[in-house]
Amino acid sequence: MSTWSNIVAIARREFEVRVRTRSFMFSTVLLVIGVVVIALLPVIVQQIDRSDSTEVAVVAPDESLGRRASLTITSLLNSSVVASPDQDTPDFVVTVVDDLAAARAGAVDGTYGAVLGMERAVDGELEFTLYTNEPATGRTAGLLQQGANAVAIGDRLDRLGVAPTDQASLFAPADFGVQWPDAERTDPIEESVTATISKDMLAFGMTILIFMIIVMYGNWIAMSVVEEKSSRVMEVVLNAATPFQLLAGKVFGVGAVAFIQYAAVVAAGVVAILAQGSVASIVLGESSSGIGLPEGLTPGLLLLFGAYGVLGFLLYAALYAAAGSLVSRQEDVNAAVMPMTLVSTGGYIVGVYAATGLLDIRAGWIVALTQVPFLSPFMMLGRAATGVAEPWEILLSLALLVLTIGAAIWVASRIYAAGVLLYGQRPGARAVWRLLREGM
Fold it and tell me: What's the gap between Cα 178 and its chain centre?
């Protein structure tokens, strides 16, 4: 048989064996359900939030101050969240109470989400104490601190004799704009925090999918090699096909399984996203106006996701197969594939941290790492989704990735050719280097 006939035959066998397993079917169903839930998460969250309110109790030294504090804090808390037009109840309800002890007891049993106590000091200044079960640096505490500052400033102006109408003009927002530091940059700057978060989460999700494809199916390839070695099937197969044909067939066969599973996952996600508006209309009514496609989801980004997913899988799959050929027991597989797992995990973690803003995605060392072929599948999508990657950077990283795949296949085929015939041995670094130099 010809080279390609052997490769296709081996790939078909790998595909048919893997696609019929219960683990494949179960994981596919689980991933499809998970991606549908994630796609419909905005609808689910709005449905939960539309009828729920967080109650905040305010304890003031006099009625007029309590009324002012209630109005100020209510306006501040509810303006900090995006409310739907027909929302039945506000997200925060501020109630003025007289008994601080009773209010604190209400915070303990869950009646109140927080209690803000106010007292008048000897010098006339207001003193505030927040009672809450949430962290002191949490969002509610931060918002209530801002509200306390606004109440304190208004109280000071009252004591200074400034009329309420004049106070309103003092607190009028300033004219504030944001521009790119590069004067030659003409694309619009992000004006929406939601849009930025959406793009970050989009890159985050795509990076996770690529990481799962590489690690999950890379391990499948390594395990397949070890299973055949331990059962001596390898010796029979090598009589009909060369080690290179066997390596290529396993990579393409398991790759086809990965494609089928993730095509189902992506298709389910796309359908769920497209149906998001209809589902929101049924569940939320007019509230569906705030639901839409994720910001930054473009055909170009989807093409990059496919390109980096396929190329990244080919690069790592060849190395996973070579690593699997070096051991003869399934117990030794994890140790054999550890180098690839560590590199891919490191690239995934840095890529996710950069995509979600925990690391500066424009930092020089991040830009440099996106050109490293073993890391670019996990790191370049974040820069592309946020619009900070230049076209030449993307093309260069893809070109380097393709060249590295060629080199990796050559290295892997030489190790694989000798490694598949090793039984009961654990080659060290010297033995691997000898296999790489000599091959078979």
Answer: 27
Q: What is the DSSP string of 356-411?
A: TTSS-TTSHHHHHHTTSTTTHHHHHHHHHHTT-S-HHHHHHHHHHHHHHHHHHHHH
**What are the phi and psi torsion angles at 251 (to 5°)?**
-65, -45
Are 280 and 291 spatial neighbours (Cβ–Cβ below 8 Å)?
A: yes
Domains along the chain with CATH numbers:
3-39+193-438 (no CATH), 53-170 (3.40.190)
Q: Which residues, other chains included, contact 230 with Cβ-Cβ below 8 Å and sequence gap of 6+?
A: 328, 329, 330
Nearest to 250 by CA among 349, 156, 195, 317: 317
Q: Which residues of 98-109 are buried (b: 16+ CB within 10 A; e: fewer)?
A: eebeebeebbee
> Measured between alpha carbons, how far is 412 from 107 in angstroms, rounded to an integer?
63
Torsion of the alpha carbons at 138, 143, 146 and 151, rounded to the nearest 10: -130
Distances (CA, A) of 369 to 138, 187, 337, 383, 397: 34, 26, 22, 12, 10
Q: Rounded to whole angstroms, how far apart are CA atoms 291 and 281?
A: 9
Q: Distance between CA 37 and CA 43 in Å, rounded?
A: 10
Strand 92-97 with 54-59, pairing: parallel
Burial 29-50 (b: 16+ CB within 10 A, else e): eebbeebbeebbebbeebeebb
Half-sphere exposure of 242 (CA within 13 A, CB side): 12
Nearest to 4 by CA among 259, 320, 244: 244
Locate 16 and state its tokens: 């048919």
293 three-state secondary structure: coil
pTM of the model: 0.64
How many CB atoms are closer than 10 A to CB 338?
Answer: 11
Q: Which of 45-54, 300-309, 413-422 has the lowest mean pLDDT?
A: 45-54
Residue corresponding to tokens 């050559």: 410
Report the pLDDT averaged over residues 30-57.
71
Structure confidence by residue, pLDDT tens digits, 366-383: 889 889 999 989 888 888
Q: What is the mean pLDDT of the chain?
A: 76
